[in-house]
Amino acid sequence: MRLAALALLCVAAVSFSFESATAADAARPRLAPTLSPDARAELALKEMSPKEKRSLVFGYFGSPKPDASYRPPQAARMGSAGYVPGVPRLGIPPQWETDAGLGVATQGASTDAYRERTALPSGLATAATWDPQLAERGGAMIAAEARASGFNVLLGPGADLVREPRGGRSFEYAGEDPLLAGTIAGAAIRGIQSQHVVAVLKHFALNDQETGRTLLSADIDRGQARESDLLAFELAVEQGDPGAVMCAYNRINGVYACESRWLLEAVLKRDWGFAGYVMSDWGAVHSTEIAALAGLDQESAAVFDHEPYFGAPLEEAIAAGKLPQARVDDMARRILRAMFAVGVVEHPIDDAPAPIDFAADERTAEADEAQGIVLLKNAGGVLPLARDTSRLLVVGGHADRGVLSGGGSSTVYPAGGNAVPDAGPQGWPGPEVYLPSSPLAALMGQSPQSRIRYLSGNDVGEAVRQAKWADRVIVFATQWAAESQDVSLTLTGNQNALIAAVAAANAHTVVVLETGGPVLMPWLSQVAAVLETWYPGSGGGEAIAGVLFGAVDPSGHLPVTFPESLQQLPHVSLPGTGRPAGQAFQVEYRAGAAVGYKWYDRHGLKPLFPFGYGLSYTRFDYGALRARVENRRLVVSFEVKNVGQRAGAAVPQVYVGPKAGGWEAPKRLAGWSKVPLAPAASARESVTVDPRLLSTFDQGSQSWRIAPGSYEIRLGESAAAADVRLSAEVRLPAWRHGARWTERWRLPGRQPPSPRDPPSAVSAARLSPNRPGA
Ligand code: BGC
């Protein structure tokens, strides 16, 4: 019934917008959907006054400031991240912006009107599915909720590589590998924009830790950045074609990301042909003409910056001849183009909130989580739990009430409210939100005949006593991570002690982790099984119970390496820790392009759990590995067969490395498949390798180059040598391609941008800590 009502509403909305577009065609050719987004943007621009153009590049915060020093414009959606006025006389709607990549968030501590929406599992969970279709579906779901809530710009997804496992925002991102992260983020963008909502790819770039995020300079060789962090963004831009990219808080080699002409003009707009607009992060602008000439197109929520740089100072800069009007035209043109390209103009947002089918959206989130849960250990086949388990003890993690989510601007307030309202800090970056999807209730649902007891875990002695009563014990352990602060890899409070004590009392102890990213596991050898469930999202309790009881086969694989100890990390202690407040510092990117597993490989380190790792309740065999060069592309094919008793999904991964060395690390992920297989079923899979993954980026000639010679192809179930199932060798010819990679232009309907000279500018770095958590 609810669904039917929704469907009707959609049809009505579509036919209305179609009518309005066609009827107005003659009078308002900029609205004619038959014209290209570029042509329409150009037409609209021609009709705009200089003031109207400037209004498009200046953003407002969408929430009141808690100290009452600022109130957003009336037309903003209250409690939102941002608002940019439209040009009503030309049919250009405002940009209503909301966070973020995991669902519709509410901003502003003073607001008492939280929007209650559906939360996807964390970005790492979606990356752990290794399934771009799930990422796309999730993107479409949250964007549909954004649209129903009055928004046409969604501030996500994030594609920063997880270089630093303590990073407080790792949970929002898609892992440590550029191919995996770029593919997942690209798919999420396609999903978001399928709903005529502009996706904003962020935080561009190298915003890899929260400690001192507005003060630090990420210092890295530019060529190595192209092969790693920037490659993730490049792939996401190519595969998703986002309307906008958000430049980050930090500096890169001394220059603010939002003032870096190299990053914004040369790499993003020139080399990658990005036709959308660059918006700043909230409080990341430090100048007017320097930023504008470097490629920043829109100042977001200017109240967070020291000055309204793209407001009155922009007008003054034009009048003083410091900034050509042509550049301001380009800024406005890019914004308009994105709005036309994504369909924001001909699919206007209703002012009244539209109904949301929460039950259906929760199923989308749950399906994502079910595929993203990673089984890390399963000694003696303790999992899946038998449905006739008679005595089950569940301990800790508020598992009786819900599942944890991450903090900061991406926090989604769930339908039904916070299940543990008193947990953690109530102010920024809190509150600590538990989504009301109780694993305990879901476990009871999976096995109604079992006697299931729950303990909070606060009393370790009591937990030990009850563990002796139980046939099986499940300990839930949580680690809250949040924007603007980094996180320890050691579980907080008594959780490590609790797990060790319970495991000593019951050999059938299963640990379920709800964490932002990797954690250390001093108790690993004592417990029977470990599941990493990340932040499980709406419906996460059900997904966890489904995997524990085997209703779903675990098929998640790690998108990040889990270190054995801090000593294995490029920085044993987090850079910037203990510095006087406000003091700038540099983070030397020692790993260069060797992020995550590549660092471990390069140094012969054995992590706790390798990148790509994940067990299943079934087993897979591999055969017939072939590698050949076809149409100048490396194509790797192989067979995979389910040789166990249960249905499951394999994630065979193809790693490649030059026999002669010369890369940042011995091997790189070059492709993968996610293959669902019934028992005894098999499939032949084929992976075509992107030449950039076989190249190094040569700074001198600004080109990608494959060195001719022998390359080893390894097919494995993780990045670890022990998980390699088959290997082969292939000879690759020399290959070279300029930084202006043309793949994107081969996609249907895409045109290469006309070459133009970026305006000249001198980038200067100034320091101004002005965001919480600097
Ligand atoms: C975050 C962004 C977010 C913005 C708006 C910033 O603090 O870094 O990711 O989109 O706020 O809330």
Topology of helices and strands:
Layout: H1 2-24, H2 37-46, H3 50-56, E1 60-62, E2 80-84, E3 95-98, E4 116-117, H4 123-129, H5 132-148, E5 153-154, H6 178-193, E6 198-204, E7 216-219, H7 222-227, H8 229-240, E8 244-247, E9 251-252, E10 255-256, H9 261-271, E11 277-280, H10 289-294, H11 312-319, H12 325-342, H13 358-372, E12 374-378, E13 391-395, E14 403-404, E15 413-414, E16 434-435, H14 439-446, E17 451-455, H15 460-469, E18 472-479, H16 495-505, E19 509-515, E20 529-532, H17 540-548, E21 585-588, H18 597-602, E22 620-630, E23 633-642, E24 648-650, E25 653-658, E26 668-672, E27 675-677, E28 682-689, E29 696-698, E30 703-706, E31 709-716, E32 724-732, E33 735-738
Parallel strand pairs: 3-5, 4-15, 5-6, 6-8, 7-9, 7-21, 8-11, 13-17, 13-18, 18-19, 19-20
Antiparallel strand pairs: 1-2, 2-3, 9-10, 12-20, 14-16, 22-23, 23-28, 24-27, 25-26, 25-31, 29-30, 30-33, 31-32
Helix pairs in contact: 2-12, 3-12, 4-13, 5-6, 5-13, 6-8, 13-17, 14-17, 15-16
The chain binds beta-D-glucopyranose.
Q: Can you tell me the overall shape?
A: globular
The DSSP helix count reads 18
Structural class: alpha/beta
Instruction: Note the beta-strand portion.
Output: 15-25%
Mean pLDDT: 91
